[in-house]
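Provenance and format

Records in this collection were gathered into a single text stream. Each protein contributes a sequence line and a token line. The two records reproduced below are adjacent in the stream.
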Amino acid sequence: MLDIEKLKVAYGQSVVIEDMSFKVGESEIVGILGRNGMGKTTLFRSLIGMIPTEDGKVSLGDKEITHDASHKRVSKGLAFVPQGRMIFPYLSVYENLISGARGSDRESDLREIYALFPVLRDMKNRKGGNLSGGQQQQLAIGRALMTKPSVLLLDEPTEGIQPSIIKDISRSLREIRTMKNLTIVVSEQVLSFVMDTCDRIMVIEKGSIVREDKTEDVDAEQIRKMLSV
């Protein structure tokens, strides 16, 4: 569903990702683990089109999107929840959600989001900036789902969120995958969240994938050492 071939991404003369290749299958949840500064956010910003690709190829299903503008990538089925969530603080929960709506069945999509995240239904008239961090993360995921994606990218979704809400988000992502046959790629530093949520785990260091395991085969202690170096 998502195919990255020999990706190269740079900020000016500074190359962050030199030659990265990996694939994510349909309805698969993949976690990309790494310490700060290892290239996770750069990778995700490149995939959504916020940073231009220097070289390589990015395909979404059977469509190449390497040089598409961000809005075209979204229209082809790629959605992105950025680090820090970036919801609209002065708009209501309802207004935030419909800002991402695509197609004519908006109310049906809203009902699905409210079923996944009941707190958003209960707080639909509250301004986004008045929600807790966990509620804002649920809102950001809901808004992304309103674009009807086939692939969802989430950059550090657990940042600043209390442990009980992290477990709710993990459960919701697996429900979303099953309900919508959705492919999900998550960047994270929290190993427990990735272990609970993902089918496969990759570790990124200095812009390269240095390890890849199915979740059931992960040596958690070894991964922790890599993340703490």
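Adjacent record:
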Amino acid sequence: MGRPAYEDVLFFRSLLAQSFFRITSIEALRNRLLTDPNLRQICGFPEVPSLATFSCRRRFAEFATRPVAIRTLNYMVSHYHEGKIIGHISRDSIAILAREKAVNKKRDVAIPTGPKHKRGRPRKGEVRPAKEPGRLERQLKMKPGKALKELGTDCAWGCKKNSQGNVSFWKGYKLHLDVTDLGIPVTAIVTGANVHDSQVATSMEKPTERQVTFLYSVMDSAYDAAPVKS
């Protein structure tokens, strides 16, 4: 019943335009479509929908669950780099601010500042249970898709220490990127801000190896862990 619904691909194109032109809000994006007939034609809108139609959470939730952007990126990367050798892959993350409700508290991610105590040796005759493998060790035997399901993707508080030793907090997400020496993105993963960079290292290394041929990976000290080196 009622008028035919707009196709989802039209809104997906408009979201790409919002990112490309760095438009800060959905309302500003709609105003740009109203005043820019060329952009409106590229997106495919016969007429600009209402703001309520643009702000439909159901549509954006579907975009988040369907890996349309990832499949498009994978095809473009493999097609462009086919038969080429890349010098190095740079891996790092960037903060994405959000105004959603966080699943954790700010104090949960604070870096401890108290003194570190040495772990004591077991007493004579004491038998301690074997230590269970951590997440990084388990990821070495898991497929990237299954390993990513263990990571949090909800909005959360995160913290990071910069090169000056100062700790900064933000609420939102993390965008983890693998880029070539020319700055072309190869693999992109979005997690909650509370996910440590090292937790996605192996989950990004394996897909990048399938996409392109490269000599070595470049990472900062946040990825300095024995399972990642292996």
